[in-house]
Design a protein that fits this description.
Helices cover 37% and strands 22% of the residues. The protein is an alpha+beta fold and 430 residues long. α5 packs antiparallel against α7 and α12 crosses α13. The N terminus is likely disordered.
Length: 430
């Protein structure tokens, strides 16, 4: 028999009498269990469970019940600093920095490892808030390094925020370029000094919000969107070495001019992102990577001898955007590609807007959007940040209805999945 009290799993295989069944349990737990044969936990759900040995010579079954496995407020914020946990518990949505409400969520999804991360600093400077989404690959170490180091470099280059308060866009752009370059150099040196092969890398999309201004510094394939009176605006472009859009074609040309090549949308047939931090083998260790490719039979020495290497094939040089936020700006949505590869910008903005119309809680909207991406079969880590700019009275806004075509499509998709499951079950049972 097993009993859960305050998340503790307790077991006993004695089945003779109630008293004997609980002989191995603490006396307080025995009393609670005898008084409450089922324990109401996890939103009032009452759990009961039993294991019986039967006529077998050995007991080989077991039961584990964890009524509070997930979804408690404290666990939802375990990856955040303790001060943030306290603030988040006190304020389900955190209103700071000029009345902006922030919500954020990171979900591992079906991936074997979690390589995303989110940093939110609502009071980064006097009048500006800071948020960043990192999407790592080939390990988490680059993300781990950048989550603090990139912010420090931004603070230094922006002169503790003084440049943001001015209107010199050229100076702001140069400051971000300098911060991203220095952070990448420090990361590459750190990866080199680790003394073991670490080929990790990470994208980074950083936003500063304040004074009715949004400033973005962007490397990789995360994306920033803005809702203006319900209309979605895509503010960034993905840095990928494939596709026919202007940014992708520029990336392909840059890589080829630097002596690199692209196979099936991947640089050297390896990586499908063209701008990122880290990725040392495409920067300071290109020669070692090429030699290893010869040893592994991926290419020939004759092929390598024809290359004219002239720069890094993956770069951390950012695209920088400055966007004015007028009275019609409702919220900012920043997310990793685990969302955008499975949901269009317009669908995501509409989804968040409907959530805010229903309850006005930006944190709940963030978590619901992450779940929606999982429901749409996202195969990646998902990280989302939403900033409600505090300019919209959500109680007075009517939710936007889903289109009839979308609902029909969802219905057919559900029917298809159920039919496939029935067909597979029939095959297995045959």
């Amino acid at each position: 028999m097993a009993l859960v009290s305050q998340g503790l799993v307790l077991r006993s295989t004695c089945l003779m009498t109630k008293k004997k069944a609980f002989l191995s349990l603490p006396s307080a737990t025995i009393a609670a269990a005898e008084a409450h044969p089922t324990i109401a936990v996890a939103r009032g759900i009452k759990w009961g469970w039993s294991s019986v040995q039967g006529p077998r010579s050995e007991m080989e079954d077991d039961v584990v019940v964890k009524p509070n496995a997930f979804e408690t407020k404290k666990k939802a914020f375990l990856s955040r600093p303790s001060a943030t946990i306290a603030a988040a518990e006190a304020h389900p949505t955190i209103a700071v920095a000029g009345g902006i409400k922030w919500g954020w969520s990171s979900v591992q999804g079906p991936r074997s490892e979690m390589e995303d991360d989110v940093v939110v600093k609502p009071n980064a400077f006097d009048s500006f808030a800071y948020a960043a989404v990192f999407d790592g690959h080939a390990g988490f170490s680059s993300v781990q390094f950048l989550r603090d180091e990139l912010y420090k470099e931004c603070v230094t280059s922006l002169q503790d925020g003084l440049l943001l308060s001015g209107k010199d866009y050229v100076a702001i752009r140069e400051a971000f370029e300098d911060a991203f370059f220095k952070a990448d150099m420090k990361l590459l040196n750190w990866l080199e000094e680790k003394g073991k092969e670490d080929e990790s890398g990470s994208t980074a999309t950083v936003v500063f919000v304040g004074n009715d201004m949004l400033i973005i510094s962007h490397v990789g394939d995360s994306c920033v969107a803005l809702s203006r009176s319900g209309k979605a605006e895509v503010l960034t472009s993905s840095h990928r070495p494939y596709g026919n859009n202007r940014v992708s074609l520029e990336e392909i040309r840059r890589i080829r001019e630097a002596g690199g090549w692209i196979v099936n949308g991947r640089i050297c047939g390896d990586i499908s992102i063209s701008r990122a931090f880290g990725d040392i083998r495409f920067k300071t260790k290109k020669n070692e990577m090429l030699e290893k490719g010869i040893e592994d039979g991926r290419w020939t020495r004759k092929f390598i001898s024809r290359l004219k290497i002239n720069g890094d094939w993956v770069t951390a040089a950012p695209d920088i955007y400055q966007v004015s936020l007028g009275s019609d700006a409702e919220f900012i949505l920043l997310a990793s590609d685990g969302l955008w590869d499975y949901m269009s910008c317009s669908d995501a903005v509409k989804f968040v807007r409907n959530q805010l119309c229903q309850h006005g809680d930006v944190q709940l909207a963030c978590e619901a959007l992450a779940q929606e991406a999982l429901d749409r079969r996202s195969q990646d880590n998902i990280s989302i940040v939403i900033a409600d700019l505090g300019k919209t009275d959500w109680q007075s806004v009517q939710p936007e209805q889903q289109s009839f075509g979308y609902e029909i499509g969802q219905a057919f998709a559900t029917i298809g999945i159920v039919s496939l499951g029935i067909w597979l079950s029939s095959l297995l049972g045959a």
